[in-house]
Design brief:
The structure is a single chain. The chain is an alpha+beta fold. It has three domains: 184 residues, Aldehyde Oxidoreductase, domain 3, CATH 3.90.1170.50; 327 residues, Aldehyde oxidase/xanthine dehydrogenase, molybdopterin binding domain (Aldehyde Oxidoreductase, domain 4); 144 residues, Aldehyde Oxidoreductase, domain 4, CATH 3.30.365. It is built from 19 helices and 34 strands. Strands 3-7-1-14-11-12-13 form a seven-stranded mixed sheet, with helices on both faces. A hairpin with a 5-residue loop joins β15 and β16. α14 runs parallel beside α15 and α15 packs across α16. It is globular. The N and C termini lie far apart (77 Å). Bound molecules: cytidine-5'-diphosphate.
């Protein structure tokens, strides 16, 4: 008798997102929804200057405001040894300024009051006497010999240099350049951008004076790691700290670091014995927390006469702001930037990187990016397009000629990465077919003959995601494994607890699907819990597209452990040998007698009611998964643009995306991730600009100036896939969350540069706004 196979919501099924039920009816539980009895509210006074010495702070008027409970200054924090805190990159950062302010928007003092209104009113009455100092707003200024030293409080810090870092083989690279037929050079700036999640950052700190236990409700992408950092910073016993990350309205890397507001609110709650809430407003979020990118890069590509790559040489200067605060794996000072050879079989490469302090807010967060992969991908994809244009080759042909061939995997890159799997040519060919590349080139030739500007941009990105294997990847010494704990109740319903934390990526659905696939329990019967350190196993958190590669693998592994136990239970129930049992999703049956079967639910019930002698009760387990390697998702994006000569306005006509993230758990969710990333890439490429004037004033600290794309200007996306499984991931899955943010900016910009190529315009830094395009055209005498 064959058993009817019901839809389980297993791998490959586009089931609807379980979590959307509560979000769609407004029943999500975000940080600002948390309200505790006796809760106080905190507001922060921020520096109006980018660089200034603090002569004095007068808080008398602020303290007198009705409802104000405390005014907290750096001096008070210093009395508790909390004026400074360690950062995730091993630097220190001011919690509340004591000596100087080092960026506009830096935290200077905080007011704790009975209401948010009283706190905000009082903040405006704090008098600070500043002695304004010159501001440094670029690595170039920071490295001038007479530049003022920003971090003069650091012992032994005589200049603004943070680190020098190298990867690859200099001698081999120099030798290849010496015999190159042609060297193509590109100098470009990947500008500061901001993840700008819908929900800003915040905390409700509740230190219970009776028990000493600190319960911290936080918008954190990494609750366990944050708990450990808090234990180290505040000297609180770790078991007395509970971090609860409720529903999160977008993180994108903005919610990884520890921000001063978190520390001040916790200290205030500890000192006052009452819960304290602090939630950033939009301006605070954009001016002070979680900047990304700001890499000044020069790439040189050595080519032979056929257009084959011989070597890549790259130098970058990183603008880290006043504190080196972003999370990087400890060994890689410039993040994972040395993936910069991308999809290309480059025999030699050498990368040098220097980090600098400037008078800007701490930057460098991995905004939807695996630690600086975005900057690397942008540079190589822009370089390849420029190289093809310079050599008079077709841009697709140039790429196809230089791709790492599918037969070469696993592949060791010139900077030391072991790519797990890939088939770049197939992804590119599919994209060329879907965008109708040959026809577009024909159309372009006709339009060019008529003096019209049309461009076709390609980017064939390779990412490195899923940090990491613990021996090479750690943050402050914490190895980057992740975890899953699975418990099946007697009636066959399951609870899966994760070390990672969703911020909107749909983990409650996709991780349930992994259990459904491995154990046969329908996804609807698997509840996924995450974000509460008291009730989930230790993990490093969700960023850098690591959830599926690491915690997804942990989930598969723990489910398989439970399946092994269920097999023994089934054998006991069927009075058969385990070796004679066959598994099909959801049930064991005796080989040759498919009607002699026990379902996974039968086995779960038996785990609590009818066990073989000597077996422990229960059906549960935990897995801490340390991946053997990273995963390397890839794809090709093709963008078609028309550029108006008279105004410089760029109109995106078509976007085709081919992504390969190995096995897709939920294709609909994957496509949603790609749509989101393509939209963010569009914003970075064309509209989003956060810059600083010469005094260090942040221009772009609100949504009137920092232009996130809306549905009005965002183009339509056509998405396709190839599937090249990861050979080392238990499910063959690779991460995908950030692929499109990583890969698409170069495709958009390449399209514009392709349009402008006939006029010898080789680069426009992002965002490629119409005024810049118009100015570039005008400089060549082209505008109408
Ligand atoms: O770490 P993060 O969740 O941001 O990134 P991810 O691991 O790439 O996953 C993003 C979302 O896509 C999650 O819901 C994944 O489970 C889902 N996904 C998938 O369905 N199949 C894949 N091969 C990769 C991710």
């Amino acid at each position: 008798m064959s058993v009817e196979v019901k839809p389980h919501g297993g791998i490959g099924e586009s089931i609807k997102r379980k979590e959307d039920g509560r979000f769609l009816v407004g029943r999500g539980n975000y940080l600002d929804d948390v309200s505790l009895p006796g809760m106080l509210h905190m507001a922060i006074l921020r520096s109006p200057h980018a660089h200034a010495r603090i002569r004095s702070i007068d808080s008398a008027a602020a303290s007198a405001v009705p409802g104000v409970v405390a005014v907290v200054t750096g001096e008070l924090m210093a009395q508790h040894n909390l004026a400074w805190m360690p950062t995730l990159s091993g630097d220190t950062q001011a919690v509340l300024a004591t000596d100087k302010v080092r960026f506009q928007g830096q935290e200077v003092a905080a007011v704790v009051a009975e209401s948010k209104y009283a706190a905000e009113d009082a903040v405006g009455l704090i008098q600070v006497d500043y002695e304004v100092l010159p501001a440094i707003t670029s690595p170039q200024q920071a490295s001038e010999p007479d530049a003022v030293v920003i971090r003069d409080e650091k012992e032994g810090q005589k200049d603004n240099h943070i680190y020098h870092w190298e990867a690859g083989d200099k001698a081999a690279t120099d030798a290849a350049f010496a015999r190159a037929h042609r060297v193509v050079t590109l100098t470009t700036h990947y500008p500061r951008s901001h993840p700008a999640p819908l929900e800003t950052c915040g905390i409700v700190a509740d230190v219970n004076p009776a028990t000493g236990k600190a319960t911290l409700y936080m918008t954190s992408q990494a609750p366990h790691a944050i708990r450990t950092v808090f234990a180290l910073v505040a000297g609180l016993p770790e078991h007395q700290i509970r971090v609860i990350a409720p529903d999160i309205g977008g993180g994108f890397g903005n919610k990884v670091p520890v921000y001063p507001g978190y520390v001040v609110a916790t200290a205030a709650s500890l000192l006052l014995g009452r819960p304290v809430k602090w939630v950033e407003d939009r301006n605070e979020n954009l001016i002070s927390t979680g900047f990304a990118r700001d890499f000044h890069m020069t790439g040189e590509l050595a080519l032979d006469s056929e257009g084959r790559m011989l070597a890549l040489r790259v130098h970058l200067d990183s603008d880290n702001g006043a504190f080196f605060a972003d999370a990087q794996p400890s060994k890689f000072k410039a993040g994972l930037f040395h993936i910069v050879t991308g999809s290309y079989d480059t025999p030699a490469a050498h990368v040098t990187a220097d980090g600098f302090y400037t008078n800007k807010a701490p930057g460098g967060v991995a905004y939807r990016c695996s630690f600086r992969v975005t900057e690397a991908s942008y540079l190589i994809e822009r370089l390849v397009t420029n190289a093809a244009i310079e050599m008079g080759m077709d841009q697709a042909e140039m790429r196809l000629k230089n791709f790492i061939p599918a037969s070469a995997f696993p592949y060791r890159s010139a900077t030391g990465w072991d790519y797990d799997s890939g088939d770049y040519a197939s992804a590119m060919n599919l994209a060329l077919e879907k965008v109708a590349y040959s026809e577009l080139r024909r159309e372009q030739a006709e339009r060019r003959a008529r003096g019209e500007l049309m461009g076709i941009g390609l980017a064939s990105f390779t990412e490195v995601v899923g940090a990491g294997h613990g021996k090479d990847f750690d943050i402050l010494g914490l190895r980057m494994f992740d975890s899953a704990e699975l418990r099946v109740h007697p009636t066959g319903k399951a609870v899966l607890k994760l070390g990672v934390k969703t911020q909107g990526q749909g983990h409650e659905t996709t991780f349930a699907q992994i259990v459904a696939e491995e154990l046969g329990i329908p996804a609807a019967d698997v509840e996924v819990q995450h974000g509460d350190t008291d009730h989930t196993p230790y993990g490093l958190g969700t960023y850098a597209s690591r959830s599926t590669p690491v915690a997804g693998a942990a989930t598969a592994v723990v489910a398989r452990k439970l399946r092994d136990k269920a097999r023994a239970l089934a054998a006991h129930l069927l009075e058969a040998s385990e070796d004679d049992l066959e598994w099909e999703r959801g049930r064991f049956f005796v080989r040759g007698s498919p009607d002699r079967a026990k379902t996974i639910q039968d086995c779960a019930f038996a785990a609590y009611t009818n066990l073989p002698d000597g077996m422990e009760a229960g059906l549960e387990g935990v897995s801490y998964y340390d991946p053997p390697n990273m995963t390397f998702p890839f794809g090709t994006y093709a963008v078609v643009v028309d550029v108006d000569k008279g105004t410089g306005v760029v109109k995106v006509r078509k976007v085709v995306a081919v992504d390969d993230c190995g096995v897709r758990i939920n294709p609909m969710i994957v496509e949603g991730q790609i749509h989101g990333g393509l939209t963010e890439g569009f914003g970075i490429a064309f509209t989003e600009l956060i810059t600083f004037d010469s005094d260090g004033n942040c221009i772009g600290s609100n949504f009137m100036d920092y232009l996130l794309p809306t549905s009005w200007e965002t183009p339509r996306f056509e998405c396709f896939e190839t599937v090249t499984p990861s050979p080392h991931h238990p499910l063959g899955a690779k991460g995908v969350g950030e692929s499109a943010t990583v890969g698409s900016p170069a495709a958009y910009v390449n399209a514009v540069m392709d349009a402008l190529a006939p006029y010898g315009i080789t680069n426009i830094d992002m965002p490629v706004t119409s005024d810049k395009v118009w100015a570039a055209l005008r400089s060549k005498g082209v505008t109408e």
